[in-house]
Amino acid sequence: MYPIKLILTFIIAIFSLTTLNTAIAEKHHSQAASFKATKITDQIYMLQGKGGNLGLLKGKQGLVLIDADYKQMSPALIKQLSRYGGTEKLNYLINTHWHGDHTEGNDALGRHAQIIAHDNVRARLLTTQEIKLFKLVSKPYPVHALPSITYKKSMSLYLNNEELELIHFSKSHTDGDTVVFFKKSNVVHTGDLFFSGFYPFVDVDHGGNVLNLAKNIKMLLGMVDDKTRIIPGHGPLSDKSALQDFHDMLVGTTVEVQSMIDKGMGLDKIKQTGLSNKWKSWTKGFLSTEVWIGIIYSSLTKG
User: Fold this and answer.
1) Which residues pair with 36 in a beta bridge?
2) CATH architecture for the domain at 32-248
3) What is the DSSP letter of 274?
């Protein structure tokens, strides 16, 4: 038999190791479940968590939040909002489109604020949706997590001495995309119409299309100026120059894929051939060149 002292030492060591591992895990979780806040003006912030970028307008009349991240981020988001008055001050939550990395937080925040979105977003959230590329299935949202205010083409909100104009850009990233313009502050939240610096996911199965996206980005370029601060759906706080680069990439890569299609090449051969090296830096996000080619190909050939 082993001495009692040795057994106790072993138990204490195991307990200490378990406690340490738990502490490390909790620290890692705490670091992951948090938001980085970037101040744009005295009233407007960009919040970055795990999903799409959020926009926040604060003031004496309350809060307006643009998008709500994943459901698992809701406790951290509620904590973040407490720095600006808390959920009791949250008047409106705007969904730029229906994807879960922008709307799952509706479940928590929809109990405090009215949710605003394009008509098609409510329709999508009312039914089961599937994104095959990522093997994701979205079940119908409960009533309190659905948009209660919807619009077709545009609408305005007036709060905290700011005018927010919501404009629908059809068949771009999805069939329900909203871009939010802070008219007085010259700040724009694009939702996933704009991925800054890397290939975007375009949801062709749910009304998105690369060709229409490029056209709408060109239109958006005419609606901003060199001083506009742009909150993209994903990526860093940006400006018109970065938006122009994004447009150039959309057009340039689409031209290359179309050229290969015109030569009679199939999707597999196009993926094998790839794109020009000048687009290589755009792979630094979460889509590879092969996946991006597939999205372009689907946009060019679907329907």
Assistant:
1) 48
2) 4-Layer Sandwich (3.60)
3) -
